[in-house]
Amino acid sequence: GCFVEDEVKQLVGAGHEVEVFAAGAAGTDPVRREGALTVWRVQPPACAGRPLFYGEGAPEALERAGLPALSAWAQAAWFWGGLCRALRRRVGHLERLVAHWLVPSAAVALAVAPHLPLRAHAHSGDVALLERWPGGRAMARWLARRSAAANSATNATELLFVTRALRQRFAALVGRPVGRVQTLAAPSELFAPANPGSRQAARRRLGLARPTVISVGRLVPIKGFDLLLTACANVARAQAAGPASPPSLDLDLVILGDGPQRQSLDQRARRLGVRLTLPGFVPRPQVADWLRAADVYVQPSLDLPSGRTEGLPLAVLEALAMGLRVVASQVGGLPELAHQNHGINLVPPGDVAALGRALDRLLGGRPTGTPL
To answer: What is the pLDDT of residue 328?
Structure first.
């Protein structure tokens, strides 16, 4: 996650030496050193099939049925062991640990280095995995007990949750509330509020001449991008039918990110007549540039039948930091954010009509390129 990169940059900027232990794709360098930063890559075995990380996402891969799921679970077990070995080799050089995701990162930290202070961040994917995994409840209770034992000793362990809803879900697993809520933040130097001059300059750089709707995320079902395409098409049809409206609302839809739904989303956009741009994964400064140029940010995420839901997508915080109006589904921690920021328009998850109405209200009838 880009939030890991943000935290690493903050620590290095504050004068710390930082070592990162992370998954690596086959063929990547197992170690990279750059000034005060060292990155250790735990690589999958050469015989591994579809990679567990850096694609659709580990929770999605582990939920598949049949042989692909067995391959994913085998990779997960191998990665767990590899992460333990990598941390054990370096633990004598470390003074403090930060873990993103309770499973496997925080669990590995508590197992290998229980004597070191630990700050563990829980996100939606790992809590959802603990909820559905047969041994998840036992693992959650072990994490809670180990963190409580460490807190009663000299070295403290902090369990942090990105939303209140996520903390409540973890409490339901362990039978009591633990940890505290700490919302992630967008880097202020990169995602500063846009002004009309910087916005128009960004639109020229990116070749945007029409009202622009933007979203960011992996191209996977939980993000609801197929519904966003339908809502954009409905907005155009509604505008064309209105007697006092322009003949059509000619908008651009931009989705930053990549994943297994890329081809199907492109085909769906062609069928619906929606002008869709899929730049793929782009560096953070380019994400800021696209947000600066857009009119509305949309987070159309869903609650999946499996129980999987969003935590608090960082891209929503980035869009709000830049002054964009946001349309978001009422899932995960997004309602909590809406109580704090009136720039968020909440719609029921999966309600294409409500999503279209919100877009129509924010975009309908505005002159091309007019800032909101």
So the answer is: 96
